[in-house]
Amino acid sequence: MSPAQAPVQKSSGGKWVLLGCGGCLGLILVSVVISFGVYFLAMGVIQKTDVYIEALKRAEHSAEVQKELGTPMTPGWSFSGSANYNNGVGNADFTLPVRGPKSEGTLRVKAHKASKAAAWEYSTLEVEFPDGKKVDLRAGP
Fold first, then answer.
1. Helices and strands of the chain, counted as H and E runs
2. d(CA 49, CA 83)
């Protein structure tokens, strides 16, 4: 007779490690996707505000900005700051990269709107270039 052998137990520890790592990686991936989604949703909303549209329009129509950047000028996606507007009153404080065929710059906006009937009052509305030169756009096109 052959000696009795104990049954071999299969270890499932490796499966749990893979499941745990996959779960963590999945959570990280979902968090990244949600973060990008929120960012692009916020960008879409901000791009439709009148303060954003007016600031970009003034930059595009400025002869000095056109001379520095060239045409066409395009806004970048790395928006930073905020634009809050509620019941006709609002504040905006943001920067936005702008680029043309010749160079690039940063559009800086700080503005306040006191009432629905009032226009945006800009304390800062300028394009700054890499060499430090600034073009003030508050006077309008």
1. 3, 6
2. 8
- What's the Cα-to-Cα distance from 133 to each of 27, 52, 61, 64, 115, rounded to whole Å? 45, 22, 18, 11, 33
pTM for this one?
0.69
- Asked whether residue 107 is domain-assigned, the answer is yes
DSSP state of 9: P
Domain-located, residue 95: yes
DSSP string for 54-103: HHHHHHHH-HHHHHHH-SS-EE-S--EEEEEEETTEEEEEEEEEEE-SS-
Q: How far apart are CA 47 and CA 45, in angstroms?
A: 5
Read off the tokens for 21: 């790592």
Higher-pLDDT residue of 33, 135: 135
State which residues form the domain around 105: 47-136
Asked if the structure places residue 130 within a domain, the reply is: yes
The reply to whether 105 falls in a domain is yes
Q: What is the pLDDT of residues 28-66, one digit of tens each?
A: 888 888 877 676 666 666 667 888 899 999 999 999 999
Residue 57 neighbours by CB under 8 Å, 6+ apart: 141
